[in-house]
Automatic annotation (TrEMBL):
Source organism: Filibacter tadaridae
UniProt entry tagged with the keyword Transmembrane: yes
Gene: ylbJ
Keywords noted in UniProt: Membrane, Transmembrane, Transmembrane helix
Protein name: Sporulation integral membrane protein YlbJ
Biological classification of the source: Bacteria, Bacillati, Bacillota, Bacilli, Bacillales
TM annotation in the entry: 31-51, 71-89, 132-151, 181-201, 242-265, 277-294
Length: 295
């Protein structure tokens, strides 16, 4: 009943604010085409291609599987970590328990976005971009090591495949393109929808309450779509002393758009989302603090 009320409420809001809804959707579409698609698509295809190649090794040490997941998943931007971990769980390279923790740890914005866009264009200092990227990965690795401590021993976990999964004969590259297209459509849909929703709710809140438009717009867009939140924070708070740490907090929050992408992808491999939720809370609290310490 609550879901139905929320859906109808949003439909009414969109009907009452058609122009703003259109502007938000248009902004989300431009954001996806110009800022996300060129970086995300090639990396997802290559990652999927690599993961679909038949394994020639029967036994791979646990640390190498973890390292493979982290390197492939953490440096491609959202939601490549979820794609990588889910594929490795499906291939039985990871147990679901390990996959659930790695899903939380292999979750970071791409280096090109943090160093190139945030560091160079927003902070005006590429070194600050490197420091922010370091803070994100320090916090992620710490979370993984602490969470791993609470994993059951190997005897209590179904061991990740002593026999490699028998893959059907086919063309891994074409399969990678096919599955990558599904992920890209998912990313585009969530970015456009939540950008439009964020703009509509910003308009409603700013008209209903006497509050600063910049604060409201930045908060609402950051909750729904990370990149839009970063852009709004830049428009309204650029040059303030707290600006770099506000950007760090927004990147840690990620936004519902990215969280929905991760949930949909992870559910295809039946991976628990509980560690992911704790991982996001951990990141929101610690990334700005670690960045402040090394800034």
């Amino acid at each position: 009943m609550i879901n139905i009320a929320v859906i109808w409420g949003l439909i009414i809001l969109f009907i009452m604010q058609p122009g703003i809804a259109h502007d938000g959707a248009e902004a989300g579409a431009k954001l996806f085409v110009h800022a996300l698609l060129p970086y995300l698509l090639p990396y997802i295809i290559l990652t999927q291609w690599l993961l679909k190649l038949p394994s020639t090794t029967k036994e791979i040490p646990k640390w190498r599987r973890f390292l493979k997941a982290y390197i492939l998943g953490s440096f491609g931007g959202f939601p490549v970590g979820a794609v990588t971990v889910s594929e490795m769980v499906k291939n039985e390279e990871l147990s679901r328990k390990q996959g659930s923790i790695l899903l939380a740890a292999c979750h970071a914005p791409g280096p090109m976005f943090v160093i190139g866009f945030v560091g160079t264009e927003l902070f005006g200092d590429v070194g600050s971009g490197y420091k922010l990227l370091a803070a994100i990965h320090i916090v992620n690795v710490l979370f993984f090591l602490i969470a791993l401590r609470f994993l059951p021993t190997d005897s209590e976990i179904a061991s990740p495949i002593s026999k490699p999964l028998q893959k059907k004969n086919g063309m891994p590259f074409l399969e990678a393109i096919k599955e990558s297209s599904t992920v890209i459509i998912l990313v585009a849909t969530t970015v456009i929808f939540f950008s439009s929703l964020g703009m509509v709710l910003t308009s409603v809140l700013s008209n209903a309450f006497t509050v600063d438009l910049g604060i409201v717009k930045t908060m609402v867009l950051s909750i729904f779509e990370m990149t839009s939140g970063v852009q709004s924070a830049t428009d309204h708070f650029y040059g303030q002393a707290f600006f770099p740490f506000l950007i760090a907090a927004i990147l840690s929050m990620n936004g519902l758009s990215i969280h929905m992408q991760v949930v949909v992808i992870a559910k295809t491999a039946n991976i628990s989302m509980a560690p992911y939720v704790f991982g996001r809370i951990w990141s929101i609290l610690l990334v700005p603090l670690v960045f402040y310490a090394i800034y």
